[in-house]
Amino acid sequence: MFQATPIVIDARGHLLGRLASIVAKELLCGQKVVLVRCEEICVTGSLLRNKVKWTHYRRKRHLTNPKKGPYHFRSPARMFYRVVRGMLPHKLARGQAALSRLSCFEGIPAPWDKKERVVVPEALRVLRLAPQRKFTVLKTLAHEVGWKHKELIERLENKRKLEAQAFHEKKKAAKAQRRAAVKAVDLSEVNEVLEEAGFGEIEGLSKADAAAAAPAIAAAEEAAPAEGEAGGEAAAGGDY
Length: 240
Hints:
There is one protein chain. The chain is mostly helical. Helix content is 54%, strand content 7%. The longest helix is centred in the C-terminal third of the chain and has 34 residues. It is elongated. The C terminus is likely disordered.
């Protein structure tokens, strides 16, 4: 489904190929996609098997000038970027435009740490890989082949999780305090007036909301007798 704002996907625990294929289709449809925690993506197969495959891939180089490519990315985010690129017509304008809609990050940097994150059930390892099968976490493979920022990302992620936990506890305490305050409000007088006017009781109304509703209730009280008198006069006029 297309949406104007970017979709933020938490890549932790997803399978590399399945996630890349789904993201590639979304990019071709015009959707902007942001992937965070790319270092937690899983690759099927043991670490030894994936290191052997990487060694064969590492040998692919330009015959006379390696600076011309291919470039062997060691960052987990760039590894995923290259997998998605292989699923797009990246040499055509359509593929280049689709690739420009993709953003990949290790960890969860700002401002994406404050955004709602989603997962892709069709690519989750726990749903798509048999329990007895071996798998490799991408950050482990990247560290083995030359990525130098594994410890830094882990340190920043631990710091972010502590801040997020503190924010959650503060928000939970504020909600509990509000529920207690709402429960302690005495609405007996307001409910009596509403019952006389033909309305039900107000449950869980805060003091501020009750104060805001007081003028409307008072106006309803004044209008009710006036309407009754006008109705009596009209009835009397009808008799004559």
